[in-house]
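Researcher: I need the complex structure. Ligand is 2,6-di-O-phosphono-beta-D-fructofuranose. Inputs:
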Amino acid sequence: MPTTPKKYTTLGRYLVQRQQGHPEASGELTRVLYQIGVVAKIISGYMRRAAIEGLLGYTGEVNVQGEEVKKLDELGNSAFVDAFEYVDIVGAIVSEEMEQPVIVSSDFSREKYVVLVDPIDGSSNLDVDCTVGSIFSIRSYSGSLEKSLLQAGSTQVAAGYIMYGSSVLLVYSVGDGVHSFVLDEQIGEFVLDHDDIRMSDQGKIISTNFANYSKWTPPVREFFDAVTGELQNHYSLRYSGALVADLHQILHRGGIYAYPEEDKKPQGKLRLLYECAPLAMIAEQAGGAGTSGKMRINDIRPEGIHQRVPFAVGSRQEIQKYETAYRRR
Ligand code: FDP
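Model: Output:
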């Protein structure tokens, strides 16, 4: 039976078409996003060959977060830094793996953007071949590096993630909705698979590390007691241990992901600038929301580049309920 050839909209084509709708745009953001697509292919190549080429396991180093560094963390970090070194569109890279930002431009004052990344998110999944991701946030350079970085997430010009799972996906937003691309390994290109993803107002998934229940603060326990105790409980629990994978599921099926504060860890675990802020932007652009419990994530002004924050993200109704539990206390 003859088949109709599929019309492939590659990431490159999509970005150029979108840019054409903005004649005032210089094309530099398009180039940054395109380079992120290149990094995604490089990291996905590492993942596919990791077990065969001895890329699993630790390097022996400990990063700025006090976490043991895995070989793939280091390779992922270098892939991002190398992709932007001296291509004169990005001034600096901030990464979970590096204590200080790295300047990647010969003349920083000319560049328009800084890129913030968690190169491999969910790295405890690496050695057992489960899904991991990369998260990125793009900000404008505004006179000084400190000023550019220590601004609320609402100033991000773009954000997104790459998910290395049963397929490799690149999901991004430049503030005009959320778009998702799947890597077609045969042609080596990201191809559009969902344009303008919308998250349902109320969802089906709760995603959190319930093993921490006894350490949670009262509002968090109250919220999860309420949603799991409902007689008409329609939720399913999904928790993969990789933020990108858990958020991605919620993007499509609705619900809530939370990594809240604990009695002894009031700042939570996840990092504001390169984990929570970009994923909150994705959620908001899809019609959802991101909160610390007490305030909108992307209204928080960071005090340091590796700052942690309690985080909940997902459908609007679940996030409203979550915030209500905090207001009651
Ligand atoms: P990981 O420590 O494996 O890098 O970014 C931190 C993160 O993973 C998230 O991806 C994930 O949601 C969370 O931490 C998992 O933490 P727990 O193992 O404490 O649940």
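Model: Summary of the prediction. The mean pLDDT is 93.
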